[in-house]
Design brief:
The chain has about 120 residues and is mainly α.
Length: about 120
Amino acid sequence: MRRKPGQIALALIYALLALNAWAQVFLALGGELSDPPILIGLQALIGIAGTAAAWGAWAGTRWASYAVVIHGVITATMLVSLDPILGLGEARSRLFIAAAAVLAWTFLFAWYLHRLTRRSEVSQ
């Protein structure tokens, strides 16, 4: 299977996002960070979903777009939850804007992967 440049880019993006989430989890578990347990749990879920999205994008699987959506929804949920978890106060509106941006990119990327995998199924 020949990979499209966009497919490779998305696989790399989600691999890096997963790596970042896993780094946060392992640093927190190792005592380097003092994040609350709920935040560590959300980062672990983001790491799992990001790993699945990277693998699915690279392999061109039908479920890759679903993994991307799951990753985006969990990430947006975490962003919106940061104020109640950490008590950030005035940053609340910026967190909602960031969550909306994450969801917008998520659905764009998911649409692209869904379209890509449908085309490869039709051509086979």
